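Q: What structure does this chain adopt?
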Amino acid sequence: MKNKINIEKWNINLKKFLNIENKKEVTPNYLFNKFESIYFEKIKSLTWKLYWLYNKYNLDHDEIKNQILISFWDLVNENNWKNNENFEGWFWNTLKLRTQNYFNKLHNSQYTFESLVGYNQTNLHSLNTKMQREYSIFDSEQISLEKIKKFISIDEYELLYCRLNFIKPKFSSWKQKEMLNSIKQKLSLNSLI
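A:
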């Protein structure tokens, strides 16, 4: 089967840790199930500790547990195991640190800034939506925000600019609705719609 992993050359400490000394090949699902069944209490304890540590970020227990499993998988696939006398302690400490590094990086203000600058979360759908908002095509003519600027007030222009660039406007939702209706009326009066 092509999904099996050859574990003959793995470190003996890792094989003992997962109780797979007599196996030659295993599937990834088998490794995850074995890890979860043997160390259920330790995974649960680590999940709760990380939950308490990162409680202000509103993380879910399942999200933390999934990241622990991802860190476990990355750790297993590294193949640079050291022959430590206390392999289990080293393994759990490394797993905890990797999971913490992931969540620290995720919630670090510099990382958030870089991901916003790099448009990491922009997908084609939101890009298409933004383009459709920015340019409306009527009678084969593109009407840009700059073209309608002379017909609308400064606050209405600011609202449209914020909506096109996915910036939260400073106006209340009720005020935004009123302003949008006003913009539609002004544009229809000036025959731009």
